[in-house]
Amino acid sequence: MRLLILGGTQFLGRAVATHACAAGHDVTCAARGLAGPIAARARFVRVDRDTTDGLAPLAGQTFDAVVDVARHPGQVRRAVAALKRPGVHWSFVSTVSVYADNQTPGQRSDTAPLREPVAEDVEHSTDAIYGAAKVACEQAVGNDAFICRAGLIAGPEDPTGRFAYWPARIARGGEVLAPGSPDDAVQFIDVRDLAQWIVHAAETGLKGIYDGIGPIRTRGEFLAECAAALNPSCRFTWIDRAFLEAHDIRRWAGPRSLPMWLPLPDYAGFMTRDTSPAREAGLTARPVATTARDTRSWLRAGNGPVIGLTEDEETAVLAAWHAGRTS
Predict the structure, then answer these.
(1) 20-74 pLDDT, tens digit each
(2) CB 211 within 8 A of CB 278
(3) Domains of the chain in sequence order
(4) Is residue 143 within 8 Å of residue 198, measured between CB atoms?
(5) Phi/psi zone of residue 11: left (φ > 0), alpha (ψ -120 to 50 degrees), beta?
(6) 170 class by beta-carbon count within 10 Å (0-12 exposed, 13-18 middle, 19+ buried)
(7) What's the CA gap between 109 and 213, in Å, rounded?
(8) How far is CA 222 from CA 2, 141, 200, 284, 310, in A?
């Protein structure tokens, strides 16, 4: 199969290229070439998707399948106009941030309401309009494609550092601040499992809209599996939302945050999506312990970021929690 990846130089795009090359496919990565190296055995073509003729270096070339991971509607519209043809399988990586309802658990991709798309004249996405921009991208791609709405993507080479916080923290051992309740749900997908499924979709001609996320786990199960793989001596102290927010502990990502934590019930639906259609269509998920160990190994090699609470910040919050319970 001749596979074109629009991107392919960072995280998911590179994982797709790596898996496709390992499977024996002829892989071309078309990008600016600024994010990082491409997979071994892939071919690189330099393009600029922000210009009208930025895909001209691909003119005259033919491909059996295209994978696009873009977040900017203008880039997606130009790619569709230049490259989408009958007989060419098209995969677009979207996001679960396209959904309008983050509160209702158990939603499915075929029935969940979407955000309103950004206006047609919006070229670029920002963090503030990310979900709405991806809706516009999906509409530009059309229904005759494989649209994968990815959830939190974890594993080696993750540039966000969100999942990486937990393997890094648990490997240090000791008392670990755990947010919310052990029964709270978490949901993510290893980048290598998602990449394998995207290549599988191209190989088999899979079309339709799916949520590309792993199974629902409880936070207690997730942290216990990470600890079993990295440092069984960890002791988890569970602290509720009200206390965390009172001490300026932030949600999901960024400085002074507990990554992968979202307050409930506000986000009860965000990490409880029904992904049975994706699993029936070939998506698999490796054990949490494998993702945790591999992410930790990558971090130890000095290659990746970790975001979230610093050691001093965590120590201060734990001390305040214990002081409040004994006063």
Answers:
(1) 999 999 999 999 887 778 888 999 999 999 999 999 999 989 999 999 999 999 9
(2) yes
(3) 2-155+188-212 (3.40.50.720), 165-186+216-272+287-326 (no CATH)
(4) no
(5) left
(6) buried
(7) 11
(8) 38, 35, 27, 17, 21
